[in-house]
Amino acid sequence: MTDLKQEAQAVAQMRDSESQKDNVFIEKKGTAGDQNDMYRMGKQQELRRNFRFMSIFSYSMVLMATWETVLTAPTSGGQYHWVSEFAPKKYQKFLSYIVGWLCVLGWQTGIASIAYLAGGQIQGLVILNSGTYVPERWHGSLLVIAVATFAILFNTVLARKLPLIEGIVLALHIFGFFAVFITM
């Protein structure tokens, strides 16, 4: 216990001598625990850290209150409906139109980014497990196209089989969890 106190005092003294040389701690100091953690990791404080437990808790309560607003009138319209609900009467149609198209663009970029990440993971696994594979840029592009095509076909052609497939994936997930947990 004495060693820990001595180490903490030594870190505090070094931190104090460093803060005289560098104004980062003075401008953006956060809590004493934050300063000790940052100094121990050899990092300098870059952002202000002024959130405490109560402020984060209060923020979460406000956020959950907004969810209650959504539950008062459930709709399948999504974001564009709520923009129409809360926007001024003059701008309701225009803002709903813009938000609707932004949602469509978000879905499309989501599909592209997920396909890119999955293709990169597949290529990474091939690189990891095959000593003879030489990765090329176009391999990644083809994997992205293949993953996107598979996802589209899976969600359109195999739509009737989704409950069965989801059940199988759930069973695999549970067995996989226990396989990893037991081997640890």
UniProtKB/TrEMBL annotation:
Residues spanning the signal sequence: none
Record-given protein name: Uncharacterized protein
Annotated InterPro entries: AA/rel_permease1
Topological relation to the membrane, as annotated: Multi-pass membrane protein
GO annotation, cellular component aspect: membrane
GO terms, molecular function: transmembrane transporter activity
Subcellular location: Membrane
Pfam families: AA_permease_2
The keyword Membrane belongs to this UniProt entry's keyword annotation: yes
Regions that span the bilayer: 51-74, 94-117, 138-158, 164-182
Keyword field: Membrane, Transmembrane, Transmembrane helix, Transport
Source organism (scientific name): Didymella pomorum
